[in-house]
Structure formats: C-alpha cells, structure tokens
Write a structure and sequence with these properties.
This protein has 227 residues and is an alpha/beta fold. The chain has 8 helices and 12 strands.
Length: 227
C-alpha cells in the first residue's frame, strides 16, 4: 500500500497512536505538531489524505485548510473535539471531506480511511466523460472542467455535482441531498448543504446557473442554452 498520510495533531500521544495504527495497516505516515508545520509539509509533498486537528498552536486547523485550499485539493479528515453544528458547517464550507469527533476509536478511523481509498479505487475504474453544456465531468478521476479550464472540488462538492448531473432536471429536496451525499449518520443540520452549494456555484464560474434554487423545496440541475 503506497498511500501517503499526514497527521497534523498537537497532542503527541494521539499523534503517535494514530501513526502506529496506520503504519500497521501499511500506510506511509508523516507527522506535524501544529498548523504552520502541517501547512508547509502539505504544500511541499502530495499526500493522499491529511488528518487534521482543529485546535492547535500557531495555526489552527480551520486556518490551515483555508490556506491549503488556495493551492491544493488534498483530501482532509478533521479530527476535532468541537461538536457544535456551526463547527461542522464551517469545516465543510472551507473544504473538509469528512470529520471524526473526539473521543474516537482509532480502529474506526482506520476503517473510514480504508473505505475512502477503496471507494476512490472503484471510481478510478470509471472512465466515462459526462458533458453538460459548458461542464465536463470525469467521474473516475474526479476531475471537472468548465469549458476548457479545470476546477478543483472537494469530495463533498464533487459528490454534490455528480448527484445533480445524475438527476438532471429533477428537483431534489435538501433531505434527499443530505441522505445521498452526507449519509444517514450525519448529525449536523441542513445548512451544510446550502454552504456547500454556495461554494460549488462559486467554483463553477460560467456554469454556476446550472444549479438552480427551487424556493421552499431544494435544488435542481438544469442546463440552459441561455446560460
């Protein structure tokens, strides 16, 4: 297994514990003890996944991810003691792919990571090109183009866009979107959908209008020749 993982965690005991679990599973693991160090390492090296604590000295996890997203689309799992809905909404808004709340079982985290990589490998086997007006998707490679320019989406943003394209012209309620993209076990509220769609529209540029708001119900993906 050649997957590279960066753990950014200021608590040494937890940092070392997670490293030991992941190394045992065959992952290559690097460690950082605070956000500034983690950001430097994440920009210097291409990791398959970053495990990122929120509350850290020098630079917290939110600020680190905001800076990272300016240059890279590395997948990020937050490790956080924060449990307020506002924190989860903020995490998704700035580009987190998933989170796990402290305290947690390292075994469960390892399983989540394994499932992520397994799902990505399955997606890589799908090579078809999907074209919708100015928008082109490559589901297997998880790549998106608006006209000829590639745009970089987080995992959740890509899953949202793929869900919309798979249900073209159909109105999807927020509850349906929540179930399909975030899953049954998501404990946050519906605002995570609205903030993620807002970010998705910003990235879609000239194709942003393809994602329509249906007032009082949800959203619809519709390609118009006028857009």
């Amino acid at each position: 297994m050649d997957k590279e993982i960066l753990i950014v965690e200021d608590e040494k005991r937890l940092r070392d514990l997670l490293r030991d679990y992941l190394v045992k599973e065959g992952y290559h693991v690097d460690l950082a003890s605070h956000g500034e160090e983690g950001l430097h390492m994440a920009l210097e090296k291409d990791y398959d996944l970053i495990l990122l604590d929120v509350m850290m000295p020098f630079m917290n996890g939110f600020d680190m991810l905001e800076e990272l997203r300016k240059k890279k689309n590395t997948r990020v799992f937050y490790i956080t003691a924060k449990t307020m809905d506002e924190d989860f909404v903020k995490a998704y808004e700035i580009g987190a792919d998933d989170f796990i709340a402290k305290p947690f079982s390292p075994k469960i985290l390892v399983m989540k990571i394994g499932n992520l990589f397994k799902r990505l490998e399955q997606e890589d086997s799908l090579q078809e090109e999907l074209v919708f007006g100015r928008l082109t998707l490559h589901p297997g490679a998880q790549r998106v183009y608006v006209e000829t320019s590639e745009i970089f989406l987080t995992k959740k943003e890509f899953e949202l866009l793929l869900l919309f394209t798979q249900n073209k012209d159909l109105v999807l309620s927020r509850e349906i979107i929540l179930e399909k993209v975030w899953g049954f076990d998501y404990e946050g509220d519906l605002r995570a959908i609205d903030t993620s769609i807002k970010r998705l529209r910003e990235k879609l540029q000239t194709a942003a209008a393809y994602v329509e708001t249906v007032r009082g119900y949800g959203y619809r993906f519709r390609v118009s020749d006028d857009v």
